[in-house]
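Standup notes
- DV: blocked on the single-chain target, sequence here:
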Amino acid sequence: MKVKTILVSQPAPSAKQSPYFDLSAKQKVKIDFRSFIHVEGEAAREVRNQKINFSDFSAVIFTSRNAIDNYFRLAEEMRFKVPDSMKYFCQSEAVAYYLQKYVVYRKRKIYVGEKTFQDLTKIIKKHKTETFLLPCSDKLKPGIPKLLDSLDIKWEKAILFKTVVSDLSDLKDVYYDILVFFSPSGIKSLFENFPDFKQNNTRIAVFGNTTIKAAEEAGLRVDIAAPTKETPSMTMALDHYIKNVNK
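- DV (later): unblocked, structure below
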């Protein structure tokens, strides 16, 4: 069956240029965007219940923009003045760049990993005398605590925000040829919103092994998977699939 419509379970790209817009124009398909999940910040009392005191830490590890936003929001709510001496360890340049929203970049001690969390641990390892705080969500990847434990450093996690299922009730009678997912939480949201969902002719596209596993465990047929050697991005995987079925 030919593909005419695609729903991507993420917010629409903020940039004017996006591979999704290029794909839409190239293959003449309609692509809509909708967040199946969203982030909600924890209240200060919830953080205190975790027995977390921001003043106990000399360094903070940031893996995302959400972690940065919620750390500084809660610091303000809890009347904690983040000291100029605080050290920041950022997973990537994009995360470090976002930190400028809250601190004067050139006046702070900021350490940046290449891309993955494993890259960042090489830098963290050189600062064993610090006490590290890891602001995170309730969906922290299990590999991260394992890596930090292996470094023999003092660290604690603080759940500062959580991933919540979005209300998709307005999509109840809307049909798409392809649904695109990037996380197990997105799959969970689909079935929480539509418990009686039947795949039928809807094609399911997923990114990453954990998402593939979640889709299959939910009884879905995975038609498009990325990344692969031939299609390292989701847009490339979609392009390849549409090219074949829309002949």
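- Follow-up: The chain has two domains: 5-36+168-245, 40-163.
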